[in-house]
Amino acid sequence: MLAEDPTAAWAPAHRLEQDAALLGRLLMAAANHQQSAGQHPDVAADDVGAGLRLFEDMRGALDRLETQVVIEARRRGMDWRQIAQHQGLNSSQAASQRYQRLMTRLEEIRQGVR
Fold first, then answer.
1. What gap in Å lies between CA 102 and CA 8, rounded to an integer?
2. Residue 84 DSSP label
3. Residues near 105 by beta carbon (within 8 Å), at least 6 away in sequence
4. What is the Cα–Cα distance from 91 to 82, expressed in whole angstroms?
5. How buried is 4 (Cβ within 10 angstroms: 0-12 exposed, 13-18 middle, 19+ buried)?
6. How far is CA 53 from CA 35, 38, 46, in A?
């Protein structure tokens, strides 16, 4: 049996570091572009594409996390009014509808519709 790769545990942290560096380069390029009167920023098209994909990945991860936290809140007896207050929403109906939209979006992603 092969020993487990000791660096594997750090892979998520390394990926996060790479993602943050990419976003930093894109933000810097955008700031430089605004100051350089229309010159093209020093960022490759592949970096821009990776940045766009990163946002979609982040949205999916945040949707999954938010759904899990709402499920946990409900499991612990919180009602929709309380959840709405913590989410900065104005009504229990808004919180419930938000949860339903998240669930629908996640199911569409799971099925490959999105």
1. 31
2. H
3. 63, 114
4. 9
5. exposed
6. 26, 25, 10
Query: Which residues does 51 contact at the CB level (< 8 Å), separation at least 6?
Result: 22, 23, 26
Full pLDDT tens readout for the chain, 114 residues? 555 666 677 777 888 888 888 888 888 888 877 666 655 556 788 888 988 888 888 888 899 999 999 999 999 999 999 999 999 999 999 999 999 999 999 999 889 887
- Main-chain dihedrals φ then ψ at residue 40, nearest 5 degrees: -75, 130
**Of the candidates 12, 14, 34, 58, the residue with the CA atom closest to the CA atom of residue 26:** 34
- C-alpha neighbours within 13 Å on the C-beta side of residue 62: 6
